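Structure in, sequence out. Go:
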């Protein structure tokens, strides 16, 4: 068990670990427990009643957070010709082709999201072992392999995030910053939960939302009653 800091232990005293909180109460509380000197990210962790080892129980998709993530997102685009110009005009931070592939192969990864036009995927495929494990590989299901670059880039900059169930059946996503306040954080939380519920695989049996927890970057987790989320 790792040794916890004084601020963490003080925050822990505010939480009833046995209680399932109402969403608004939990979001209020998570801001109180975010005691670091910086503007902490508020994270959402949802344990789903799926077995991710089965292909028909994968849960993956994207959602645009109504109020964004609070983070400036660096977008890299693999494109050539007119599509490269479109990407630059739409606000992409890095645009290129073979030059970017070489740079990434040398260890450069100073970006948050990678987008590619479909015709570039043969080239981008060389980076699978580098980008794949970091969740940075362009993917059609995430809307990051597309010829509609302007829309893709603007959606990402506006707060579009990708969610994906991990091998422990948990989805981890940011829902904003402490400074957002309760109303904006609740809006973002609700958007994610609605997306997850819509993404429920037909093969998933029994209880789908096993647990829902919010926490700040440096703070303890606060459990939310899954039954009370969508009604709020």
């Amino acid at each position: 068990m790792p040794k916890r800091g004084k601020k963490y232990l003080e925050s822990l005293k505010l939480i009833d670990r046995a209680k399932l909180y109402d969403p608004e109460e939990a979001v209020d509380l998570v801001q109180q427990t975010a005691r670091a000197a910086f503007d902490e990210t508020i994270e959402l962790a949802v344990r789903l009643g799926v077995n991710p080892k089965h292909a028909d129980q994968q849960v993956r998709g994207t959602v645009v957070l109504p109020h964004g993530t609070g983070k400036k997102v660096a977008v890299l685009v693999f494109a050539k010709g007119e599509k490269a110009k479109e990407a630059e005009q739409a606000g992409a931070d890095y645009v290129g082709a073979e030059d970017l592939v070489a740079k990434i192969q040398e260890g450069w990864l100073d970006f948050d999201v990678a987008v590619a036009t479909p015709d570039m995927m043969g080239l981008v495929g060389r980076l699978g072992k580098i980008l794949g494990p970091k969740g940075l590989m362009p993917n059609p299901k995430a809307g990051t392999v597309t010829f509609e670059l302007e829309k893709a880039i603007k959606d990402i900059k506006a707060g579009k995030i990708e969610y994906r169930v991990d091998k422990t059946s948990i989805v981890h996503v940011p829902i904003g910053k402490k400074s957002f306040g309760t109303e904006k954080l609740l809006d973002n939380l609700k958007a994610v939960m609605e997306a997850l519920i819509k993404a429920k695989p037909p093969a998933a049996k029994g209880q789908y939302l096993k647990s829902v927890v919010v926490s700040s970057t440096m703070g303890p987790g606060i459990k939310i009653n899954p039954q009370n989320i969508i009604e709020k």
